[in-house]
Amino acid sequence: MVSASETQFSLRYSRASRLLHWLTVLLVLTTIPAGLVMVQEGLPRALQDTLFLYHKNIGPVILLLVVLRLVVRLIAAPPPLPASVSALQALAAKVVHWLLYIVLVALVISGIVRVQAGGFPMEVWDPLLGGMIAKDEALAKSASGFHELAKSVLIVLIAMHIGAAALHGLVKRDGVFSRMWPPA
């Protein structure tokens, strides 16, 4: 016979999935404001340099986390959604989740291309990634434009994801939010 606690546990994401999810959240939700602020006119140079260093060097960490999350997802499939979630809601959740993965990967890659093609260092990552792309201002400009567009898409997707999590966790209280919470 399966106990209530075992049933509850089987309806949650794995511990690894939860930890990777919340670590990704922390890094993304600090990287976005850093990226938005670092390009503002009139910032003290020391603050601007610090924000640039953080933003461009955390990007590859986020990429690694996304790859790890996908590997963990293959090994430990997500728990089933409660029966109260409609087929349309389930499809929307699946689409938003996969778009989040895709956009995060695209953002990091376009950021790396922008930095390297712009002739700038990626201090932490140069020993591994340095010199992959030669300086090319046209490529840097294109990558920057794509990065800007992808950033806007990411913000919309995050708002949708947080909105759905809040709906399920605070209003419906149907167990969807508790699949990912608490982090450990």
TrEMBL record:
<keyword id="KW-0472">Membrane</keyword>
<dbReference type="InterPro" id="IPR052168">
    <property type="entry name" value="Cytochrome_b561_oxidase"/>
</dbReference>
<feature type="transmembrane region" description="Helical">
    <location>
        <begin position="98"/>
        <end position="117"/>
    </location>
</feature>
<keyword id="KW-1003">Cell membrane</keyword>
<feature type="transmembrane region" description="Helical">
    <location>
        <begin position="58"/>
        <end position="77"/>
    </location>
</feature>
<protein>
    <submittedName>
        <fullName>Cytochrome b561</fullName>
    </submittedName>
</protein>
<dbReference type="GO" id="GO:0020037">
    <property type="term" value="F:heme binding"/>
</dbReference>
<feature type="transmembrane region" description="Helical">
    <location>
        <begin position="149"/>
        <end position="171"/>
    </location>
</feature>
<dbReference type="GO" id="GO:0009055">
    <property type="term" value="F:electron transfer activity"/>
</dbReference>
<keyword id="KW-0479">Metal-binding</keyword>
<feature type="transmembrane region" description="Helical">
    <location>
        <begin position="19"/>
        <end position="38"/>
    </location>
</feature>
<keyword id="KW-0249">Electron transport</keyword>
<comment type="similarity">
    <text>Belongs to the cytochrome b561 family.</text>
</comment>
<dbReference type="InterPro" id="IPR011577">
    <property type="entry name" value="Cyt_b561_bac/Ni-Hgenase"/>
</dbReference>
<keyword id="KW-1133">Transmembrane helix</keyword>
<dbReference type="GO" id="GO:0022904">
    <property type="term" value="P:respiratory electron transport chain"/>
</dbReference>
<keyword id="KW-0408">Iron</keyword>
<dbReference type="GO" id="GO:0005886">
    <property type="term" value="C:plasma membrane"/>
</dbReference>
<keyword id="KW-0812">Transmembrane</keyword>
<dbReference type="Pfam" id="PF01292">
    <property type="entry name" value="Ni_hydr_CYTB"/>
</dbReference>
<dbReference type="GO" id="GO:0046872">
    <property type="term" value="F:metal ion binding"/>
</dbReference>
<dbReference type="InterPro" id="IPR016174">
    <property type="entry name" value="Di-haem_cyt_TM"/>
</dbReference>
<feature type="domain" description="Cytochrome b561 bacterial/Ni-hydrogenase">
    <location>
        <begin position="12"/>
        <end position="182"/>
    </location>
</feature>
<keyword id="KW-0349">Heme</keyword>
<keyword id="KW-0813">Transport</keyword>
